Amino acid sequence: LPPPCDSKIYCTGDLLKQVQLARLFPDAKHFVDMPLRKPADVVLAEFQQLMAKAQKGMVSRTELQQFVTLSFDDPGKEFEQWEPQDWNSRPRILNKISDQKLRAWASELNTKWKSLGRKIKVAVEAQPELYSLIYVPKPMMVPGGRFIEYYYWDSYWVIEGLLLCDMPATAKGMIQNFLYLVDRYGHIPNGGRVYYLRRSQPPFLALMMDAYLARTNDTAFLRENIHLLEVEYEFWQHNRSVNIAVGGTDHTLNRYNVQVGEPRPESYSQDWELAAGLSDGEELWAELKSAAESGWDFSSRWFQPPTHAGTLRDTKASAVVPVDLNAVLCKTERLLAEFHRRLGKAFQAALERRLQAVQAVLWDEAAGIWLDFNLLTKQRNPAFYPSNLVPLWAECFVDQAVVGKVLHYLQVSQAPEHEDTGLPTSLARTGQQWDMPNAWPPLQHMVIAGLAKSSSWSARETAFALAQNWTRTTFSLYHTYQAMFEKYSLDGEGRPGTGGEYQVQEGFGWTNGVALQLLDLFGDRLAAPVSASAPRAAPRLAAAALLVLAAARG
Ligand SMILES: OC[C@H]1O[C@H](O[C@H]2O[C@H](CO)[C@@H](O)[C@H](O)[C@H]2O)[C@H](O)[C@@H](O)[C@@H]1O
To answer: Which GO terms describe its biological process (predicted)?
Structure first.
């Protein structure tokens, strides 16, 4: 299998291995984010000399430390100060928010764009081999914390947030960056580093374009770039599709599948240790990258068999046909068809094939919901994940009767003791960050926005109840910690998120974007808690459940 990229500094080779296994930095990502002070060939030649002198080729920790200090600069030096030109202190969304405290909070979230904005120095374009950062021409918003570069799927919620804050120029620049990456690589890397190059993330590019067009009507931008939206779509069709036969009919759907070897450079020591003693370590490393491509890194959702008792070693993400990936590609096909109609051309057949495949392979009539399909067991995974509801948001269904069934599923399957705080990522407590007790902003958004766009009153009321709960959770913790977190734990009525391979990060791009989107959806009704630490009095989902039952009874 090829390495994560060809760089013998940042992706493969002895230097990377020895520095990362010596654990020179508390966070392994630190080393692979450090720019070089000298040309790569000089650094590699100097390291060879060091190895030649060392016992059995193993350089001592002290020498490694000295070498890194002399040859590498601090992470972050690749960026220059940048404040968005289109930032303004009174975006129109504030007028839609009735609650005074929530309005003041939204105003503070708007101010956060100033601190999350970055511009890449021209030096990175001139001498890319000195950096792990992948150059893009326009300024961008980064997630925050250890994530000092751009990320693909995070940027969808950031772009929606920017558009709500009347910042279409910054939003457009971020989309231009992703189009630039498609033009250059044929796909969008997981994030803005060479070590992310050979894997992507959930494909939200067409949805970003749609969000931008909805606010600007900039058809000229669409016309100039529609070919690149198709190139990205074709990347998923050619490299990430799989055929599944159901009832004598062949269907094509998609999965995450990264056939790339070696440990992830940004988590080298963890991956190395995880594979210790395994005969098929290379296969496990490829599966970890497939899971990272899903954005859900890591989760029991990818364990084979799917079990609450599994460990990271059981990860087999490429065996799963995920509901949310296929729903997002279904949305992409619908959007490409619409975009082409807008430009006077046809593009519809792929959408119809996808609708049939999602219905045949992923819809489970007995459970009343879409479920991930496992290619090895040929079974659907019955476990609860918010991703099971994503087709509602992505409008990837034909029969409107699914709405009532999905609402019923939501009421019976998630952990009721957490309902006032947020939707859990799964019901399995594995210690992985995309599992119980964590709740992630993008998942809350896709479920809530999916229910909110329904014509069913019960679905819209359930959406409101969930939005109210999530808003209170993030608002209360914001006031307790003065921070917006990348994820939240549902334990104890809400805490900063836990688990996984790094400390919970603050900033945070998609969290701010989702908070603003919920305020945009329900700003006339959402209410802040009386005091930030007061016990909750949010409309309980149980109340919404009664509405669902009433609706089901007609
Ligand atoms: O360093 C470990 C992993 O970190 C990233 O994943 C997490 O943060 C991303 C940025 O917010 C987010 O997109 C992803 O969903 C999170 O799980 C990175 O994307 C991974 O590839 C990396 O291995």
So the answer is: trehalose catabolic process
Q: What DSSP line would sit under 325-381, residue for residue?
A: HHHHHHHHHHHHHHHHHHTT----HHHHHHHHHIIIIIEETTTTEE--EETTTTEE-
Q: What is the pLDDT of residues 417-451, one digit of tens each?
A: 677 899 999 999 999 999 999 999 999 999 999 99
Our CA dihedral for 206, 212, 215, 218, rounded to 10 degrees, sits at -100
Q: How far apart are CA 298 and CA 375, in angstroms?
A: 19
> What is the C-alpha to C-alpha distance for residues 228 and 207, in angstroms, rounded to an integer?
13
Write the ipTM. Answer: 0.96
| 141-171: pLDDT as tens digits | 999 999 999 999 999 999 999 999 999 999 9
Determine how β-strand 320-321 pairs with β-strand 249-254: unpaired
Helices 14-21 and 40-53: angle between axes, nearest 10 degrees: 70
Q: What is the pLDDT of residue 347?
A: 85
Residue where the block lists tokens 């519809």: 348
Q: Which atom of ligand 1 is nearest to the CA of 508?
A: 11
Indicate the angle between helix axes 100-116 and 509-522, nearest 10 degrees: 150
User: Shortest CA distance to 256 belongs to which of 209, 307, 315, 331?
Assistant: 315
Tokens 């069709």 belong to 237
Locate tokens 């305020």: which residue?
519
Query: For position 536, what pLDDT does the model report?
Result: 53
Burial class (CB in 10 A: 0-12, 13-18, 19+), 256: buried
Residues with CB under 6 A from ligand 1: 29, 143, 147, 151, 153-154, 190-191, 264, 266-267, 292, 295, 297, 486, 501-502
User: What does the alpha-carbon distance between residue 464 and residue 526 come to, in Å, rounded to a whole number?
Assistant: 8
Report how far ligand 1's centroid is from the alpha carbon of 295 (Å). 6
486 is an active site residue: yes
**How far is 483 from 475, CA to CA, in rounded Å?**
10
Q: Which atom of ligand 1 is nearest to the CA of 153?
A: 13
Find the Cα–Cα–Cα–Cα dihedral 272, 276, 279, 285, rounded to 10°.
-30
Active site residue 262: no
Kindly report which listed range (183-197, 318-332, 400-414, 431-445) carries the lowest average pLDDT score: 400-414
CA atoms within a 13 Å half-sphere pointing along the CA-CB vector of 323? 31
Residue with tokens 């958004």: 445
Atom nearest to 267 CA in ligand 1: 1
